[in-house]
Amino acid sequence: MNTSLSRRSFIAKSVLGAANTAGVAGMIGPPVTAQGQENGVPTVKAAPESKGSLPKGKICNLEVSRMLLGGNLLTHYTHSRDLKYVYALTRHYNTQQKIMETMATAEAYGVNTLVIHTAPGAIDTIKKYRRECGGKIQAIVCPTANIEPDMKAYSEQVKQLVDDGIEMIYLWGVRGDALVQQGKMDLVAKAVECAKELGVPSGVGAHDLNVIKECEKAKIPCDFYIKTFHHHKYPTAPKVDQVKGVVAEIPGYWCSNPEETIECMKTVEKPWMAFKVMAAGAIPPKDAFPYVLENGADHVLVGMFDFEIEEDSKIFKDAMALVKRVRPWRS
């Protein structure tokens, strides 16, 4: 994949491809199959925390598990470098039925919150899971609508998400990076306030550490940050001279300056959800989880297939039991 291909352009191309083939379901997977239904109702049933619980933090009035279910694998965006077949493989595995099974498994192991963007079909799948499977999983969603001075498209999408029962909203990292780079902190503030005015916690996402720095400087009234964070001690990590931008698909990295991120976040008093903590699968959980927890993350997004959740939740609990932090818990 070309390193200049942003997540934004990927989504645009994916949506176009879906429209030309299987419609909206092309992004989130085909409808639940007949084998997965009884009288039209999915057979999967949620069983919250039946197999274990995880530590939680509090953001505004919501209790949020410290381990979060990341949404990229569920929307088939795998960050698989130049292995392009993996996108198709993930799409064929993570059907709508399997996505609901994944959410149910996550809940059973104490993961009470999902983080996802507005890929076609994603919100409908969450609603279906809650309505027909008894799921209680909370959702933190980043709208992907354009952000313009009048905020019309963005505010409409935020309102729709709140009407759909989404518990928390955050400014998509792709948007946050671009707005801060363009010096449009007024639009960052408007995006944050848009959700807060509707009574839901509102955050800011970022790949670029400058987003956090500028938000803190401008005193943007967000309730939390979602920021990439991983070390560079993995075989395919970039060499020093290869770090030429905020992110890159080849060599794969999404946190260009982990040491600077650690130092910066020590001074931030808002809750921090870290994502891309395994560098899109390059860092094993036993390495990734202790690193991000010990270095300040309050919550950790973990992209998982359903069969990985049991083991990852155990590794996470083990890491939590041994964690020694300098940065206080902020949630």
Report on the architecture of this protein.
39% of the residues lie in helices and 15% in strands. By secondary structure, the protein is of the alpha/beta class. The protein has one domain: TIM Barrel (Alpha-Beta Barrel). Strand 9 (202-206), helix 9 and strand 10 form a beta-alpha-beta unit. Mean pLDDT is 89; it is low at 1-27 and 29-35.
Number of strands: 12
Percent strand equals 5-15%
Order of helices and strands: HHEEEEEHHEHEHEHHEHEHEHEH
CATH class: Alpha Beta
Overall geometric form: globular
Q: Which sequence of strands runs across the widest sheet?
A: 5-6-7-8-9-10-11-12
The end-to-end distance, rounded to whole angstroms, is 37 Å
- Regions with pLDDT < 50 over 5+ consecutive residues? 1-27, 29-35
Name the helicity range.
25-40%
**Mean pLDDT across residues:** 89
Rounded Rg: 19 Å
Just name the CATH architecture. Answer: Alpha-Beta Barrel
Structural class: alpha/beta
Helical run tally: 12
| CATH-defined fold name | TIM Barrel
Main sheet, how many strands, which sense, barrel? 8 strands, parallel, barrel
- Tally of individual domains: 1
CATH superfamily, called what? NADP-dependent oxidoreductase domain
Spell out the blueprint of helices and strands.
Blueprint: H1 7-20, H2 25-28, E1 37-38, E2 41-42, E3 56-59, E4 62-65, E5 67-70, H3 85-93, H4 96-108, E6 113-117, H5 122-133, E7 138-142, H6 152-163, E8 168-171, H7 173-181, H8 185-196, E9 202-206, H9 209-218, E10 224-228, H10 258-266, E11 272-275, H11 285-294, E12 299-303, H12 309-322
Parallel strand pairs: 5-6, 5-12, 6-7, 7-8, 8-9, 9-10, 10-11, 11-12
Antiparallel strand pairs: 1-2, 3-4
